[in-house]
Amino acid sequence: MAESRKPPELDGALILDGDMDGDLDDEIHSRPRSVDPDVDPSEDGKADLASEMLVEILKRMGLGAQVSVREDADEVVLDVAGEDAGRVIGKKGQTLDALQFLINKIVNRFPEGRRHIVLDSGDYRQRRENGLVSMARREAKRAVQQSRIITLEPMSPRDRRVIHLSLAKFPGVSTRSDGQGAERRVRIIPA
Predict the structure, then answer these.
(1) What is the pLDDT of residues 24-80, one digit of tens each?
(2) CA 74, CA 39: separation in Å to the nearest integer?
(3) CA 183, 186, 191: angle at the middle one, nearest 5?
(4) For 119, which DSSP code?
(5) Which end of the chain, N or C, is more open, meaning fewer C-beta atoms within 10 Å of its C-beta?
C-alpha cells in the first residue's frame, strides 16, 4: 500500500506564488553593480527597492500600512504608519527586527555599496532606546545601593548594546553580557 505524503509544515511561512511585480523581480535578480565613488549613494536605488519589498511583504501579510522613506549616505530609514503599525512592531519590536533583517538581506545581497536599512514605526526605536537607558540607570543605582549584581532580562544584541553604552560612564558600575543566544543577558556589576 502506498504511503500518502503530507505537505511540509508551512506555519508562518511567507509563500510567494507566481511572479511578483515584474520590475521588482528584475531588480532582485540583477547583477551587482560596481560602486562609483562619484555617484551619490542616495541614487543607488536601494531605498526604492527596500521600500517596494517592504510594501509587498506587508501586503502579503495582510497588514494595512504605508511606508515612507528617509535616507542619507549611510542608511535608509523606512517609516511604517497606518492602522496595523502596531502589529508591524510586534512584541518588543521582534516583528520590526525580523522585517528589518529580511529587507537588509534582500537589499544588501552583494558586498558592493552596502547601505544599512532601518525599519521604524512611530518613532518606536527612539522610544525603546530611551526606555532602556532609563531602566539601565535605575537598575545601576539599585546595584550600587544594594552592593549586588543585577541581572537583566534576556535582550537582543541591539538592546544589550544600548545598556552597555548608557552605563559605560555611570560611576560605580561595570557591565558584562553572559549567556548564549537568545538567553544572553546584561549583568550590572557594582565596583
Answers:
(1) 444 333 333 333 444 455 567 889 999 999 999 999 999 988 999 988 777 899 999
(2) 13
(3) 150
(4) E
(5) N
